[in-house]
From TrEMBL, chain B:
<protein>
    <submittedName>
        <fullName>ABC transporter permease</fullName>
    </submittedName>
</protein>
<feature type="transmembrane region" description="Helical">
    <location>
        <begin position="21"/>
        <end position="42"/>
    </location>
</feature>
<feature type="transmembrane region" description="Helical">
    <location>
        <begin position="62"/>
        <end position="92"/>
    </location>
</feature>
<feature type="transmembrane region" description="Helical">
    <location>
        <begin position="147"/>
        <end position="169"/>
    </location>
</feature>
<keyword id="KW-0472">Membrane</keyword>
<feature type="transmembrane region" description="Helical">
    <location>
        <begin position="176"/>
        <end position="201"/>
    </location>
</feature>
<feature type="transmembrane region" description="Helical">
    <location>
        <begin position="104"/>
        <end position="127"/>
    </location>
</feature>
<feature type="transmembrane region" description="Helical">
    <location>
        <begin position="227"/>
        <end position="249"/>
    </location>
</feature>
<keyword id="KW-0812">Transmembrane</keyword>
<keyword id="KW-1133">Transmembrane helix</keyword>
Length: 316, 252
């Protein structure tokens, strides 16, 4: 199969690429030489603790602030050089960034004009966001979830190739989170490029395919979620038995590292369950439980970002 | 892309610009009426020297100009206050184009407010003066039509100045403080400043000189109408240019 020019453009055009992206404010470096790329067709999570530089990076992507050095592009071009910005990239940075007295309909109608679209598109977006009944309401009566829905409707007006969401799950109720997640999923499956940020690993774990992790403005990890889990989380074997002391002796005779967790429970590091089970069988020990436990992803994330997390002291 | 439509819908879809415009029209007219009310009952012979019923009928501009200026400023500061500016710039990354469209919309709103305030105030005050048997002005009198057009343009320029101040300060409060200083304080204290500085301010401070645009009877302390409006227009253009440059280069 040969690639036509249109195909290659379709496939490669709408990647987000950061290259040596740096932003300094006075003496403070908010983003420090970031390089990464975000592919179409998958959901990419942009993860980092508060103050890591996520929002600064996204604001540079949207052309709101200028990089001190480096560049961040959409399909190879900075946003200012896009022919149809609203049809290429849609963004939800801050859901509350709407005028409290402008109705949802008028808000969307204004942005539809900016994108060169008409009223029909506004109605469709209201419908998609589940805001049809609130179209003539002012946002000052909205719940946070409704703000998020309006923000997403605004971002999707131009049916963009690239969708950028800053903390989109913040403040959503479980139903809203499910809605947002399935929307991202369906857009990704249509080949869109989805980049969403969060400071919570737990949100990434159930939503993202790929991860870009930053801390203190620097890249910490850029991989698929599966690779990230494999590379950064360790496993232990949990074994529960009434004959804890006997098993512990056998383990230490075999030179294995373990930790007593409870009066009948041990965590064995760096082993697999069959090895521990076999040893127990040889000793004639009855096991009540034998499981592999993976270290929570959140813990791996905290460990990775700890060395570079600037607000850690204040949080402790 | 329809950037003008974008800016126009943003302007027309909230009540504050309309309330501000209506306040300018009615408060301006009411203040003009209060200004001449103490002359009602005065004999025509006791009218002050250089009696200019046209300029007299637009005394309410003192307050109306502040509201028109704030109408301009608020069109952009409200976007900074809510954070909407980020969404606007992401959809229209061409900053010059975005601000040019906003300038057009503010220009139309200010001009409309200027026309309404001028005509209502002029008509009401001339009727009061005529009713009291004092010398009044008619639109066909020499120089009056020119003065009324000058008045409308004066308010339009103040609206555009307000937008420029809003772009530069990004803050409603700072814009209000700046506009009060520029339109009210400096013209009010200029006559009290001794020496050349005070005289220069009375002549050339853009607001003071701009107000010459709606005088029919010239006053010694002020420049002529064309030069006066020209000075205000030039200063507005200069501040506006600074606003465009700032808007284009500063981080949002």
């Amino acid at each position: 199969m040969s690639w036509t020019k249109a195909d290659s453009k379709l496939m490669g055009a709408m990647c987000i690429r950061a290259h040596g992206l740096t932003k300094r404010y006075g003496g403070k470096t908010a983003v420090d030489g970031l390089s990464f790329s975000v592919q179409p067709g998958v959901i990419t999570g942009f993860l980092g603790p508060n103050g890591a530089g996520k929002s600064t990076t996204l604001r540079m992507l949207l052309g709101l602030i200028r990089p001190t050095q480096g560049a961040i592009t959409i399909g190879g071009r900075p946003i200012a050089e896009l022919e149809h910005p609203a049809r290429t990239i849609g963004a939800l940075l801050d859901a509350r960034a709407v005028h409290p007295q402008r109705t949802a309909y008028d808000h969307l109608l204004a942005f539809a004009h900016a994108a060169g679209l008409g009223k029909a598109r506004v109605d469709k977006m209201l419908d998609l966001a589940g805001l049809s009944n609130a179209a003539t309401s002012r946002p000052d009566q909205f719940s946070l979830g409704m703000y998020q829905r309006l923000g997403l409707a605004t971002a999707l007006l131009g049916d963009p190739d690239v969708l950028v969401l800053d903390e989109p799950l913040n403040g959503l109720d479980p139903e809203g989170i499910r809605w947002m997640r399935s929307l991202m999923r369906s857009l990704a499956s249509k080949g869109r490029t989805i980049l969403f940020s969060s400071h919570l690993m737990s949100e990434m774990e159930i939503t993202a395919d790929n991860l870009i992790v930053i801390g203190n403005g620097r890249l910490i990890a850029d991989s698929s979620l599966a690779e990230f889990i494999k590379a950064h989380t360790s496993t232990v074997v949990l074994v529960r038995t009434a004959a804890r002391e006997q098993l512990a002796r056998a383990l230490s005779d075999a030179g294995m590292r373990f930790k007593a967790i409870a009066s009948d429970t041990l965590h064995v590091a760096g082993a697999d369950p069959s090895c521990v089970g076999g040893m127990a069988a040889k000793e004639g020990i009855t096991l009540d439980e034998l499981t592999t436990i993976r270290e929570p992803l959140e813990k791996a994330f905290l460990r990775l970002t700890r060395s570079v997390t600037q607000y850690e002291g204040q949080l402790a | 892309m329809n950037v003008l439509g974008f800016e126009w819908i943003k302007m027309r879809s909230i009540s504050s610009p309309w309330l501000t415009a209506l306040s300018a029209i009615f408060a301006g007219t009411t203040l003009s009426m209060l200004g001449v009310s103490d002359l009602i009952g005065v004999s025509p012979a006791d009218l002050p020297d250089g009696w200019d019923p046209t300029a007299e009928s637009l005394k309410g501009f003192l307050f109306a100009q502040l509201l028109v200026g704030m109408l301009g400023a608020h069109s952009i500061t409200s976007e900074y206050a809510t954070g909407l500016i980020g969404t606007s710039l992401a959809v229209v990354p061409a900053r010059f184009r975005l601000l040019a469209a906003k300038t057009t919309v503010v220009c139309v709103m200010s001009l409309g407010t200027g026309i309404a305030t001028t005509l209502l105030s002029f008509t009401a005050i001339q009727a009061m003066l005529a009713g009291a048997g004092l010398a009044s002005a008619g639109i066909a009198d020499p120089g009056v039509a020119r003065a009324l057009v000058g008045a409308m343009l004066y308010l339009t320029l103040v609206g555009l100045m307000g937008l420029a101040v809003g772009v530069l300060t990004r803050s409603t409060t700072a814009s209000l403080a700046t506009l009060i200083g520029v339109t009210l304080l400096v013209p009010a204290i200029a006559p009290g400043i001794p020496g050349a500085v005070g005289g220069w301010l009375q002549h050339y401070w853009p607001i003071s000189s701009g107000q010459a645009a709606y005088r029919v009877v010239p006053v010694d302390a002020v420049v002529g109408p064309e030069l006066g409006l020209g000075i205000l227009a030039a200063v507005t253009a200069a501040v506006g240019t600074a606003a465009f440059v700032s808007f284009s280069v500063r981080d949002a």
